Protein: Small-conductance mechanosensitive channel
Organism: Marinomonas fungiae
Amino acid sequence: MTWETIQPYLGFGDSPMHWIVKVFIVVFVTLTLNFVIGRLLLRIDDKLQRTRTPWDNMIVEAAMPPLRLFIWLIGLSIAAQISENQLDEEFTAIVVKIRQIGVIAIIAWFLLRCVKGIETTLISGRASNKPVDYTTASAISKLLRAAVIITAALVILQNLGYSISGVLAFGGIGGIAVGFAAKDLLANFFGGLMVYLDRPFKVGDWIRSPDKNIEGTVEHIGWRQTRIRTFDKRPLYVPNATFSTISVENPSRMSHRRINETVGVRYNDFSKLAQILDDIKEMVGKHDEIDNNEIYMVNFNQFGPSSLDFFIYAYTRTTNWAKYHEVKQDVLFQAMQIIEQHGAEVAFPTRTLHLFNEQQDTGEEFISNTAKPAAKPKISAKHSRQNGNENQADTSQVGDEETNQ
């Protein structure tokens, strides 16, 4: 058996059907190479998992799908070139264009996966002990992805025969019209850019605005709008342009939380008030959850309508909302216990009514006078008779008038 006898079976002869064998061999080699490269990359990734740096793993994981697709693209394009004599020339030209565009798209896909991997690595903190802020990493990632996509699109247009300079010129002229038509959209875009750059808040922060009815936890910061989850669990969508016209308060970045409560004791406990204030102030200063490096006060404040009022003013170490209320409750409970230990009581609104003796005597005389029955008027007989005669005269006159009628 010689090479001349084996050559026809391998597809290297001059027979018109030998191109099918060649295409089959190319596809088989492509499939085998794809499988081998995939297994090799998996083993390399497994080895790199043991290294300290996460960047090598990120690059290998980003390259796996694009590299395997690139192998298929090259293999199929070679198979198309082998069958060039058997197919239409226009089809062959289309295959060449597809290969060029495919290579550009695969490179862009690899770069996009690298950008996403870098973003994930920075946010997770695997590259350093301190993770990067999610809002910053997300903003940079979006800008890089936009740059990769725009560059890939321009290169593809160039390969398709379009002039990039003409496209850019059209974009410059059309950009003016688009700017007027999409004024609000651009305002939101630049508003989102300012949020990314200035970073007045980030995802997860509790924010509120005294200018508008906006309060809740930031869930997502997009290019056009920001999604906020209110405390009653409703989503609130705020256009980014709004944040450039309002003031935003970020309670999540407070260093402490403040306790400012007023307590009142009875006026009868005035002699005990000074010692009560000293004991409560000592308790506040020794409390584990109160930051005594900040100002704290327990002082008599004012004479209330029914109580002697003093206030407790301090700052907690925690900024957590639930933990803060636990600390505040404990401070008030201990203050109440100190008040009770001194035999004092917390005052509540009261009103006293005083009745004087003069008012009582006057009232008794008024009651005794009004209790006597009124005397009946005396009518004389003469007056009665006169009235009777007058009544009789009136009656007779009325009768005469009725008869005449």
